[in-house]
Amino acid sequence: MAFKLVGDQYSKIRQARKRRVDHLLAGQIPESEVLKMRDGRFACTVCSSRPVFDTLMVLSVHRKGKKHIKAVLANMKRSLEESQPGKAEQPLLAQTQAALDHALFSSQSSSLSSSFEKEGDIKEGTDTSKRHGPAHDTSDSAVPKKKQKMLQSQDKACEVESDKVVTSSNINSDYNRLRSSGWLPLSDGTWIKDPQVEFDSSSDDETSDEGKTE
Amino acid sequence: MHLYALTLQKPSCITAAVHGNFSGRKAQEVVVARGKVLELLRPDPNTGKVVELVSTEVFGLIRSLITFRLTGSTKDYIVLGSDSGRIVILEYDPVKNVFEKVHQETYGKSGCRRIVPGQYLAVDPKGRALMIGAVEKQKLVYILNRDSAARLTISSPLEAHKSHTLVYHVVGVDVGFENPLFACLELDYEESDNDHTGEAAQVAQQNLTYYELDLGLNHVVRKYSEPLDDMANMLITVPGGTDGPSGVLVCCENYIIYKNFGDQPDIRCPIPRRQNDLDDADRSMLIITSAMHKTKHLFFFLLQSEQGDIFKVMLDVEDDIVVRIKIKYFDTVPVCSSLCVLKSGLLFCSSEFGNHYLYQIAHLGDDSEREFHSDYPLEEGETFFFGPRPLKNLILVDEMESLSPIMSCQIADLANEDTPQLYAACGRGPRSSLRVLRHGLEVTEMAVSELPGNPHAVWTVKKDSKEDFDSYIVVSFMNATLILSIGETVEEVTDSGFLGTTPTLACSQLGDDALIQIYPEGIRHIRSDKRVNEWRSPGKRLIRQCAVNEHQVVIALSGGEIVYFEMDQSGQLNEYTERKEMTAEVICISLGSVPPGQQRCRFLAVGLSDQTVRIISLDPHDTLQPLSMQALPALPESLCIVNMSGNVSDDTTVSTGGLFLNIGLQNGVLLRTALDNVTGDLSDTRTRYLGTRPVKLFRVRIQGTEGVIAVSSRTWLNYTYQSRFHLTPLSYDLLEYASSFTSEQCPEGMVAISSNTLRILALEKLGVVFNQVSTPLQYTPRKLLIHPPMSNLVLIETDHNAFTEATKLHRKKQMAEEMVSSAADDEKAEAAKAAEAFLAEDLPEHMFGSPKAGRGMWASCLRVMHPNQGKTLDIVQFEQNEAAFSLAVCQFVSKGDLEWFVVVGTAKDMIITPRAISSGSLIVFRLSPDGSKLEHVHTTQLDDVPIAMAPFQGRLLVGVGKLLRIYDIGKKKMLRKCENKHLPYLVVDIKVMGRRVYVGDVQEAVHFLYYRPHENQLVIFADEVVPRFCTTSCILDYNTVASADKFGNITILRLPSDVTDQVDEDPSGSRSLWDRGFLNGATQKANVMTSYHVGEGINTLHKVSLIPGGSEVLVYTTLSGSIGILVPFSSKEDSDFFQHLEMHMRSEWSNLVGRDHLSFRSYYVPVKSVIDGDLCEVYNSLDPSKRREIALDLDRSPSEVAKKLEDLRTRYAF
User: Strands B50-57 and B421-426, how do they pair?
Assistant: First the structure.
């Protein structure tokens, strides 16, 4: 029996190069800003229209574009406004939101590239970690750093309020419970009923209690 | 992963049955085909029981079966049409007890194809030719003859093809010794195919075509064809030549028509219908099966209709012309696939579903039952009416259990017996049942009697060796012996000669007419003339152990001394001069029985306290000399030497002469060692763990050969049956002592002691793996679940084309009222009486069938049962046309941990194809805390039929059509919380582990979903490449699923290690039409680990452990009633060994139907990583020379190979 050769050495090199590029691109994109879909495509979570792209290459091109940068700036403005003292008249809500954000971000803190490493196989013997570090630092925009600063300030806010014990797991499980019961969270911290989900007539009380705790 | 496939229970449905004289003697036998198993059954005319003589798995699908006999011969041959593309003629060899292939002719490709013959077989009644036909186009005729050595010869095939023709039935016409003629029911579809309007198809007519084989010119001619007015489904040959008028009976819708050549006009007779039938009056009636019985002076036909009614049909002949058909109602039996009338007056009915029956034809229907003639004046469309009644002409003689079809099965130990039981919901329609299957032989208890005190041993003795039956039962107590005589009644006797004031160690018949009793102080020899010789034990030493047979006595005194006695020609018992001193205390001794025609048994086995067993010779020239020894892993408890040669072709048996030494150890292990009957060497030990208590052994007689009863914490029986050794537990109370017993009422039984009672037992169903306890159900069971806290069973039963009880009652009342209102005034009183009688009439549906309601009419119920008492605790009847399809027993998080709910998914007015319903619903019931009562909570409307349900994280997953939804329980209805719309066709199976959901689609294999509570989404993250028609699945671990499909394939799928379930749905919520992804849409695909074709549609899969302490296996059950397992190999060497063995078997063993084993197991998809254990076990039935060759190739001895096969089976199952 003779075995046919599939492709040639050049095609192998091309494949390896493409994989390497994908891996590098993945390293630059924080996982919190990308949604990986079940059919292998990617969606940008920063932009409110959630555009969907076929490959990481195209996604990274989008991230350099005008619309995306506009959305990023808008997000920054919003988060700055929220952290300002002007919101002091609703301090509890602000605290809840901050704690929630902290919990959510901390649970998804792994970078996109680490998930890539599980899937793909990087056969080149290059030391990727070194390349990772500087590339990650330099190419990233100011946003993550600012976000990190914000997170730190929120952390402190959390620590101050020590008499109310709010663990991330509690918030997570309550969030999950409400979410899986069919409630949708709004950006102002309230919950509305998902129109796709059915409810009992007396289930209004459910969330009003939960929304007000913590 | 490599698996080993084994069948535990053969298929029990019968697809075809034929009768004849296969062994060449006068006895009539029946050959049955059970899908892929061919069996020979013999109904015993004396006892009336059906005995299975031989059963062979053919590893192919048997499609048709017929017998033929050459002119002047006394023996019948069997012709098989199968999916191998070959016609096969078999002969039964009664000496070897096997089917042997006489001829095998290839004519086409393998597989069940439309144009390749194999579906129909017809034979010339004089045995000169046979025709094998396909569903379409092809028919081949073979001429059969005998050569100078009287062997059967077969010619090359002669073609009788006709293109564009569908064939409905083929029979051979009896034309005496003229050219053989075959009649076919055909339909020519050429015009219908070419006509695009469809009108030609509406008016298409069937033809009755005759094909004549011209023996002189050696070709087949299409002689004559005539169109039929009504659609026909069956033809029946009418005896011809000198025995009758010849011709055929054509069974059409509602009519039976007699047709013949020449001047014979067609005679039409309508098929009688039941009076006051609840069935739709416009529904036509078909004859589905028939049998013909011919004697010297007359012949008659028994025809069975769709409802199960049997009619006796006779033809009135004048001057060789048939003038009328006479038809009479005979009896009603369950609907059959075949009827066989045997010459001994027995009627064998192989039921379509459910148990099969053997009846005795007591009367030939020559009674007051009204007879209808074809020349009675009747309008077109009218028919005769008769009243069905219980059996009058037939007497039920035997019933053969059949599990087919197994609709749903659960395996669990609900009866707390250590071994799990199988709860199988089987059957169809009113003949359905819930059967509890337990591994073990069924024991029939003939008599039980209390005994005073604590008996510890029992024996039976005959007064004279010429007597057929035992004379005394001797029961030994702590300090006395009771002797009972066996006769009309069992009474105590005092004059038997036995000593009743002392306990007995053994007793037996000695010589021809003497008895012997051994007690601790001595031996008592009782002659026929009542003279008694006593031998006293010396000094203060007592007899501890003894062994006795017809001529020899061996006793062991305390201190390890053995004394030997032998009977001489004059009947005197002489002590051997020397006594043997053993090196250790003697714990047990055993003598074999004296071989026929010999003076003595040559070997004595002695078990000593130094954990050894020694074989000592009793030959005259080396009496009491040691021959061999075996070291034991524990202290021996008892020994038994048996001769189990039978007709077992085991290598060891053949080489050592069939003598086995069974050693029961104190740690509950049974050792079986072959004892060479020449040298006395011990070899080839097989070990089996029996239970927790020391093993005691007793010799008994089973079917004329010796067997061993081994008692530990459970009673086991070791016996030979159909050339194989079996070690099977008994499904009975624990016995303490057992002995053979023969009497007039019980020719081969056992007498045993169990907890102070004396029991007489009989073992009738040997060779059966499971014993069944059956509870009847109302409709066809669909799903069966266990309610975990109380271990009750919850099941749904649904039937299509059926009425509910309420509707039936209503209709009956309506019909009764019509009867009265339509009668003339002067007949009102009579009509009222008739109406009353009609309302009071109650024909049990499991015999008479249930009335057919019509398309879209359903009857359904929900039942809670106690699993072992078989009692229905609660039943909920659904409305007419509401059909239950799915069931879940679950708890809801929102209701807490204490309440259990039963959720039933139903559909109303469902039409099966194309699938349409008027509405679907989820009906929720609350189970009472004791699990016995159902309380309706609420009903939720759905827009499609819910076919699958599964509890999921405190809520319920429901497959509604092709949508997968999560529901939570609300106050007034079920609340939909989450939905996935991306499954392709229809959700038929749901399994859950953690947050993963494994969904089986009706056509597109298994989909893997993950539930993300954070987004409240069910996301498909992986699926499969190959389309599979899933019926059920079973989770093996988090990444591995076993799935079965309706074509009989089992596949195991595994997600590769790099698959992640953390994927998201499209955030925009909808999917663009043009972007469907590829091959069902998920990027990640599961790999196929194993694939295997079983051969029958599979309904359930479970991963359980079948024996206490055994590892888990994958158990499957099928529609044909078979149960099998797939067992994982634990080492690579085992897997390699069996793979090589299977390879050898494929090349060495010739398949009975000529099917290639590899291609059979790769019927749909190539077989992967599964070794066919049934084929490997055929190794034991090969010729010794072939066995040696194969074993040599595998670097083992034949007995080692046999041992490995046995070990693998007993390690996981039985």
Answer: unpaired
| pLDDT band, residue B187 (cuts 50/70/90) | very high
Q: Tell me how far apart the alpha carbons of residues B1017 and B995 are, in angstroms, rounded to a whole number.
A: 11
| Beta pairing, strands B491-492 & B481-485 | antiparallel
Does residue A180 belong to the interface with chain B, where contact is any CB pair within 8 Å?
yes
Residues 5-64 of A with CB under 8 A from B: 35-41, 43, 45, 50, 52
Cβ pair A38:B1063 closer than 8 A: yes
- Chain A residues touching residue B1065 (CB < 8 angstroms): 37-38
Q: Which residues in chain B have their CB less than 8 angstroms from residue A181's CB?
A: 968, 977
- Compute how many other C-beta atoms are within 10 angstroms of the C-beta atom of residue B154: 17
The residue ranges of every structural domain in chain A are: 9-166, 168-214
ipTM reported for the complex surpasses 0.90: no
> Does the pLDDT at position A119 exceed 50?
no
Among positive and negative, which fits the CA dihedral B994, B999, B1005, B1009?
Answer: negative
pLDDT confidence of residue B790: 87
Residue in B1013, B1060, B1063 closest to A179 by CB = B1013
What would the pLDDT profile of B63-104 be if each residue is shown by its tens digit?
Answer: 999 999 998 889 999 999 999 999 999 999 999 899 999 999
Per-residue pLDDT, B1039: 94
Contacts of B394 (CB under 8 A, 6+ apart): B330, B331, B333, B347, B359, B360, B361, B362
Hey, are the CB atoms on A199 and B975 less than 8 Å from each other?
yes
Best of B895, B943, B969, B978 to disrupt the A interface by mutation (most A CBs within 10 Å)? B978
Question: Which residues belong to CATH 2.130.10.10 in chain B?
Answer: 982-1068+1077-1128
CATH architecture of B982-1068+1077-1128: 7 Propeller (2.130)
The pLDDT value recorded for residue B490 is 77
At B1063-1072, the pLDDT tens digits run: 766 655 455 4
Contact residues, chain A, for B975 at CB < 8 Å? 182, 197-200
pTM equals 0.84
Q: Does A185 touch chain B (CB under 8 A)?
A: no
Nearest CA in chain A to B1064: A37
User: Å from A173 to nearest chain B CA?
Assistant: 9
pLDDT mean over B556-564: 89
Question: In this structure, which topology does domain B1131-1212 adopt according to CATH?
Answer: DNA polymerase; domain 1 (1.10.150)
pLDDT tier, A131 (very low <50, low <70, confident <90, very high otherwise) = very low
Residues in chain A within 8 Å Cβ distance of B979: 196
DSSP string covering B190-249, please? HHHHH-TTSHHHHH--EEEEEEEEETTTTEEEEEEEEE-SS-EEEEEEPP-TTSS---EE
Residue A166: predicted pLDDT: 57
Residue B1213, pLDDT > 50, answer yes
DSSP string across B764-799:
--TT-SEEEEEEE-SS-EEEEEEETTTTEEEEEEEE
Six token digits for residue B942: 């759905």
Question: Is B1063 within 8 Å of A37 when comparing Cβ atoms?
Answer: yes
Record: contact A200-B1082, CB cut-off 8 A: no
Residue B434 has pLDDT above 50, yes or no: yes
Contact: B1067, A43; criterion CB under 8 Å:
yes
Average pLDDT for chain B: 90
| Residue B337 near residue B15 (C-beta atoms within 8 A) | yes
Could you say which of A36, A194, A200 has the minimum Cβ distance to residue B1064?
Answer: A36
Identify the closest residue of chain A to B967 by CA–CA distance: A198
Counting residues of chain B whose pLDDT is more than 70, the rounded percentage is 97
Cβ-based contacts of B968 with chain A (< 8 Å): 181
Average pLDDT of the segment spanning A100-129: 52
pLDDT at A144: 45
What is the token pair recorded at A88? Answer: 């002091």
Count CB neighbours of A119 within 10 A.
12
